[in-house]
C-alpha cells in the first residue's frame, strides 16, 4: 500500500487518488484533438467525445492553454476566459453524468509555438533564447521553422505561474475534478527542466534544484488554489520529442520529485519507453499515486499495461490511441471484446469524424 492509495492490484479495481475516487486504474491519456474554434472554445461534440469515454477511471483532457499566450497549435482549447469555461462546464457535467472523472491538462507550449497563434504584442517565450530545430504550426496550419524564443524575465515567470493558478481555479469552477500540469514532451515546463533548453544562470537554472524550481513553483501556486489532491504532474524524463536533449538529466527529475513530494499531489504521471534505474527510483520516492504511460511502441493493450499494476510498478496506467477508437475500452478489456484500430488521419482534424463516431461494442447491453 502506497500512502494515500489503496492497492488492490488489477487495472479494474477502484482507487482513491488524492481527493478523487476512481472506478478503475485505466486513465485516458491526454490527447490534443484540435477541435476548438479560433477563440479556444470547444464545440458541444467535445462533451459527447469525453462522456463517451467516461468508463475510464480518469480522463485527462487534451492539452489546454492557461492563457492566450500559451497556445502553440491551431484548434487547442483554452481555459482562461468565461466562454471557454462554459464549454468546459458542459464537458464536466456530461462526464460526471456518465459516471466518469476528468482532469484538465494545462499546457504552455513555450518555444514550440508561433507568433500567429498568440495575441499581438505577446511573445514566444522559453527559459533561454534557443530555438527548437523543429517545424511548428502557424495559425493557418502551415508548418514553418520554429522561431527564436525570448528568454523569460523573472516577471514573465511570475505571470505564467499566476496564469496556471488562475486556470486551475477556472477548471474547478467549471466542475472539472482537477488539473494535470504538462511538464513533458518538450513544452515550457519541460524546457525549464532540461539543461539543453535551460541555460539560465539565475535561480531557475544551473543546477538540478534550480531547473526544477519553475515546475515546483507552478505546482505550489496551483495547489494553493485548488488543493494538491486535485493536481497531477506529467513528465517524460529522457524524452527527445520536440528537439529535447534530456538524456543524463536524472538528477533534475529526482530534485523535482523531492520538491513536489512535500505538496503530496494527486499523482505523478511518467511517460516511459523502457524501465531504468531512474524510473524505479521515482516510483520508490514518490509518496502518492504513480501513473505510467508506456505507449508509442505499439498499442497500449491490456497485456502490456496489466503487469504494470500487478507488479506494483504503477498504481495507474494511461492509454492514449486505443481510447480514441474504443470509447468503451475498459468494458472491451473486461469482456475480451476485440479492439477497433484508430485512424490517424482524423487525430487532429475531421470534425465529428474520427471523434465521436467510433462505435461502442457493448451498446444496448448491460455490459459494464
Ligand atoms: C493524437 C494525440 C495527441 C496527443 N496529445 C497530447 C497532449 O495534448 N498532451 C500530452 O501530454 N500527450 C499527448 N499525446 C501523447 C499521449 O498522451 C500518449 O502518451 C501517447 O499517445 C502514447 O500512448 P498510446 O501508445 O497508448 O497512444 C498525444 C498523443 C496522440 C496520439
TrEMBL record:
Which controlled-vocabulary keywords does the entry list? Answer: Oxidoreductase
Superkingdom field: Bacteria
What is one term from the GO cellular component aspect held by the record?
A: cytosol
Q: Which residues form the NADH:flavin oxidoreductase/NADH oxidase N-terminal domain?
A: 11-338
Q: Any keyword Membrane?
A: no
Q: Which GO terms describe its molecular function?
A: FMN binding; oxidoreductase activity, acting on the CH-CH group of donors, NAD or NADP as acceptor
Q: Which InterPro entries match?
A: Aldolase_TIM, OxRdtase_FMN_N, Oye-like
Gene3D superfamilies reported in the protein's UniProt record: Aldolase class I
Coiled-coil regions listed: none
Entry keyword annotation includes Oxidoreductase:
yes
Enumerate the cofactors the protein uses: FMN
Provide the family line: Belongs to the NADH:flavin oxidoreductase/NADH oxidase family.
**Protein name listed in UniProt:** Alkene reductase
In its UniProt entry, the species of origin is given as: Nocardia flavorosea
Amino acid at each position: 500500500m502506497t500512502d494515500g492509495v489503496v492497492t488492490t492490484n488489477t487495472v479494474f479495481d477502484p482507487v482513491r487518488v488524492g481527493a478523487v475516487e476512481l472506478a478503475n486504474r485505466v486513465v485516458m491519456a491526454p490527447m490534443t484533438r484540435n477541435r476548438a474554434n479560433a477563440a479556444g472554445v470547444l464545440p458541444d461534440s467535445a462533451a459527447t467525445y469525453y462522456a463517451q469515454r467516461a468508463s475510464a477511471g480518469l480522463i485527462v483532457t487534451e492539452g489546454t492553454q492557461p492563457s492566450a499566450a500559451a497556445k502553440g497549435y491551431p484548434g487547442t482549447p483554452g481555459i482562461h476566459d468565461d466562454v471557454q469555461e462554459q464549454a468546459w462546464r458542459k464537458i464536466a457535467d456530461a462526464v460526471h453524468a456518465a459516471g466518469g472523472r476528468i482532469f484538465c491538462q494545462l499546457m504552455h507550449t513555450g518555444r514550440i509555438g508561433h507568433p500567429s497563434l498568440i495575441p499581438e504584442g505577446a511573445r514566444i517565450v522559453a527559459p533561454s533564447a534557443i530555438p527548437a530545430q523543429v517545424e511548428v504550426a502557424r495559425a493557418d496550419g502551415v508548418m514553418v521553422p520554429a522561431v527564436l524564443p525570448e528568454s523569460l524575465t523573472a516577471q514573465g515567470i511570475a505571470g505564467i505561474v499566476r496564469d496556471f493558478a488562475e486556470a486551475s481555479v477556472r477548471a474547478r469552477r467549471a466542475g472539472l475534478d482537477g488539473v494535470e500540469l504538462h511538464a513533458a514532451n518538450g513544452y515550457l515546463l519541460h524546457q525549464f527542466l532540461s539543461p539543453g533548453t535551460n541555460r539560465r544562470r539565475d535561480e531557475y537554472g544551473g543546477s538540478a534544484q534550480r531547473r526544477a524550481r519553475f515546475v515546483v513553483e507552478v505546482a505550489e501556486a496551483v495547489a494553493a488554489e485548488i488543493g494538491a489532491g486535485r493536481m497531477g504532474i506529467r513528465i517524460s524524463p529522457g524524452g527527445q520529442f520536440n528537439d529535447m536533449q534530456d538524456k543524463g538529466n536524472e538528477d533534475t527529475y529526482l530534485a523535482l520529485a523531492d520538491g513536489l513530494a512535500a505538496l503530496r499531489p494527486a499523482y505523478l504521471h511518467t511517460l516511459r519507453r523502457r524501465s531504468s534505474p531512474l524510473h524505479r527510483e521515482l516510483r520508490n520516492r514518490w509518496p502518492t499515486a504513480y501513473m505510467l504511460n508506456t505507449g508509442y511502441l505499439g498499442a497500449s493493450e491490456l497485456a502490456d499495461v496489466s503487469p504494470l499494476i500487478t507488479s506494483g510498478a504503477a498504481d495507474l496506467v494511461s492509454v492514449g490511441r486505443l481510447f480514441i477508437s474504443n470509447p468503451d475500452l475498459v468494458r472491451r478489456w473486461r469482456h475480451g471484446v476485440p479492439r477497433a484500430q484508430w485512424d490517424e488521419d482524423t487525430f487532429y482534424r475531421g470534425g465529428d469524424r474520427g471523434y465521436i463516431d467510433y462505435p461502442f461494442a457493448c451498446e444496448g447491453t448491460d455490459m459494464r
